[in-house]
Fold each of these.
Amino acid sequence: MLKIGIVGCGAIATFISKAIARKKVSNAKVVAYYDKNRHKAEKLSKITNADVCDSIDELVKKDIDLVVEAASIKAVEEVATKALSNNKDVLVMSVGAFVDKELFLKLYNLAKDKGRKIYLPSGAIAGIDAIKSLTFGKIEEVVLKTTKPVEGLKEALKDKGIDADAIKEPTVVFEGDVFDAIKQFPSNINVSVMLSIASEFPAKVIIVADPNAKTNNHEIFVKSSIGTLKVLIENVPCEENPKTSALAAYSAIRIIKDISEPIKIGT
Ligand SMILES: NC(=O)C1=CN([C@@H]2O[C@H](COP(=O)(O)OP(=O)(O)OC[C@H]3O[C@@H](n4cnc5c(N)ncnc54)[C@H](O)[C@@H]3O)[C@@H](O)[C@H]2O)C=CC1
Ligand SMILES: O=C([O-])CC(=O)C(=O)O
């Protein structure tokens, strides 16, 4: 039985908790939660009967195998460092944190020293399996075009001084590299960092705010000497947090299932 601790008890943690409680993953159980808002952890503990912790330190000292970070980019360094130092594997949802190469190397080396694993789920995009394989050839171009309903981009647009309510037609609100994309849209474009890590190539990113969109769409283009990949995924947003696609949560659930079972399907 894979024992899990979850840091961050929002939309993704809710999906994971329900999937485990409903036995969609039968060889795993949630043992502990921590959220800076204790009330959110208490809500999820009612689903799984797991303990509610008062700190990350308390959670990583529990008898668990895997710590799931589903909180924020800012939380990743502390959660992953403490999990790995306490001999736990860690699954990171806020992959955008790894745009910081120093942090990536620090956690990579810590995991290596400790003999532990860092899991980065495909999240809200598809095609990571093929993109990883394409790195054995020469990658020439990586582009991500993300279109989201205006509502899902509202917070980030406000921070950029853009009035989301004034957007009446599909509008490009960002065009640039992955580094600026994740800085300006930290809760919307973790997928661009995932794509760049998988392809080992900095992605060009275009973000469109569409007042008529009902889904979070990600169009991926990767040109390489091995082949050209084009993927379009139209994701249903989570009710609890429309910025986040349900697929992102299900990709975490799928990794948990893969870790807990004797067979792993796909790359
Ligand atoms: N890799 C991917 O494809 C995707 C990644 N994400 C990222 O996954 C993370 C979780 O997403 P959601 O569940 O939708 O977010 P959410 O906003 O619904 O929930 C996050 C929870 O974490 C808590 N939290 C934030 N910082 C914390 C900290 N330092 N310590 C403890 N708790 C903390 C909040 O109180 C909240 O309850 C976010 O960073 C999000 O941007 C989201 C979608 C796709
Ligand atoms: O869930 C999505 O569609 C993508 C997302 O929010 C992210 O990558 O941060």
Note: The first helix runs from residue 11 to 21.
Amino acid sequence: MQATQELGLSAKDLSVYYGSKQAVRDISLDFEKKQVTALIGPSGCGKSTFLRSLNRMNDLISGARVTGEIWIEEDNILDPKVDVVLLRQKIGMVWQRPNPFHKSIYENIAFGPRYHGIKNKKQLDEIVESSLRKAALWEETKDRLHQSALALSGGQQQRLCIARSIAVKPQIILMDEPASALDPVSTAKIEELITELKQDYCIIIVTHNMQQAARVSDKTAFFYMGDLIEHDHTQKLFTNPSQQQTDDYISGRFG
Ligand SMILES: Nc1ncnc2c1ncn2[C@@H]1O[C@H](COP(=O)(O)OP(=O)(O)OP(=O)(O)O)[C@@H](O)[C@H]1O
């Protein structure tokens, strides 16, 4: 099984264990290019565990074990031969809490491209500007690029983290509740940004907020106790789900 042209990423029979406990059970899920997929479900159902396995972040957790396949183009990224640094260039991650480096705005963006070999100042300047523009942060930061990123507001810091992930030209961006630590205005900006970014990237977002999933995503996957219960077009899943458990969850009967 390989991801085809339209597919950004394809998980097949993916299971994740923490020690003997299975947190994600045999999940097969395709993610298309230029689409946003939301992962929803009650706390502890395995959304973040599944998301983290998509760019091998679970490798960093002692006792975590992943089985199955995850295809991006011709590569099964669970193959031990895969270069994890290059993989994380292709599949970026934005975390729940903004986590800029303790460096200037400019250096936050330039760090990744420089790490991957770009040394030319003019080229780095261009990447910094284009990444900040794509993250809708250029106008707010162009006159303070060399000031600390930590002086930005929480919402600006999160857009900076998105700009930082874009700077290394990923194909896929994973987002783990990217707006849950932000105020409503900053949340709206992140949601707008997600809608803009999907023109260029495959985006997979974990969210607790069902309204947010409905607003930003094309497809939604509902997880429950480590299983994938339903995956469908967002509008269909929220208005006419096929599974009773999905219906119970979206209508607030549990979770
Ligand atoms: N590092 C870990 N070590 C051991 N167990 C873990 C670890 N991380 C998560 N788990 C367990 O795996 C299961 C799935 O957790 P996960 O965080 O993936 O769920 P989630 O749906 O993202 O939850 P939430 O919405 O609360 O973030 C839970 O039972 C959790 O306790």
Note: The chain is about 35% helix and 25% strand.
Amino acid sequence: MSAPKITDVVVTPVAVLDPPLLNASGVHEPYQLRAVIELRTDEGVVGLSEAYGDTPTLNNLRKAAPSLIGLSVFDLNGLTQRVAVTLAGVTPSTLTDLVGKASLQKTVGQAIGAFEVACFDAQGKATGLRVCDLLGGAVREEVPYSAYLFYRWAKHPAGATGPDYEDDDWGDALDPAGIVAQAQRMVDTYGFASLKLKGGVFDPDAEADAIEALRAAFPGHPLRLDPNANWSVETSKRIAKRLEGLLEYLEDPTGGNPGMGEVARATSLPLATNMCVTAFQEIPEAVALDSVRVVLSDHHYWGGFRASLKLAGICETFGWGLSMHSNTHLGISLAAMTHLAAAVPNLNYACDTHSPWTREDVVRPGALEWNTATGSLLVPGGAGLGVELDYDALERLNRQYEDCGVRVRDDASAMRLAEPGWELRTPRF
Ligand SMILES: O=C([O-])C(=O)C[C@H](O)[C@@H](O)C(=O)[O-]
Ligand SMILES: [Mg+2]
């Protein structure tokens, strides 16, 4: 069997159109940034991966990249060690506070994960195996995803849009009727079962009204609400009481394990998180305070596939459910999330994905196929991740990155274009 060695690492930032989705931190800007990683090898095999495209992440990826030259794509312990050594002194950074606090472990984990996924893709291409087979074998050939519902505007605020920006055709969704209509379109298009509403935007009772409207319109669909820690403990307790029996889980109503623990003791609703358990060192406190019942994993910051499998084992140990978190992403990450979810037996909730909001991609069409009866993505069949890079699209979206001027995600400044006095307050309600 061949063991390709890394000869070159190419990191290409891209910007993709993104609609004005509202959240606790403000509103999405017209462009979201991603980085496409190509690991080139001495055997011609190229491993692909996708990471955040903000400047701190790009700097870290580019700083760590030279340390990988000469490494076998199978030497994942070597990869972990080289990246950890190279990035030992970097300033911790995070894409957004909506995925929890920045820490060195997460910052280094982001780079390890980004390169590790590309190594797995290269391993698959070298052996003819799919990534899910390299991760222990697929326990499912279709991965269920949830509809990711957002309050949103029809258009970005004046002053936000960049060159060639064209609004999408979803219109606004600012009340229960708008959210139900958005959910209907997602269910009709993809067949999603679970429906997740991104909250933390409006008065919590108005968001609970939207959940009740979703329950009435979709009696058999599991529902989730995620205020991204924008509620106080008292508000969380009150709204959790109101929503008991209506949600499969309540995600990050309030911030931090102590507050989440207090809310957990006051409600029968399972609490889920991608904010207070986002790295291994946060787990002991969550266990001690019994603050969460479900963890949303994310290979992008937990440190890659192998770290995600380790997290799955820890969730199993403590009887925690496992779900999957998403930030705006493209087809390489969707393939990576799907292979991982296919290989984790206890991933027992439908995964989040921003896919329905993404209108541009760097992968060739065809490899990522939805079962629109069940809202599931078929595990790609080709070797490795099973997706191919469209180099014309990569070049165009890289040019868009160069032209658009966005370099870090800043939902709060985008919000201030519409509401000049708007301040980030956590919690707001
Ligand atoms: O589940 C979550 O907390 C997220 O998906 C965080 C994201 O950043 C989301 O809020 C977004 O895209 O605005
Ligand atoms: Mg969340």
Note: The chain has a mean pLDDT of 97.
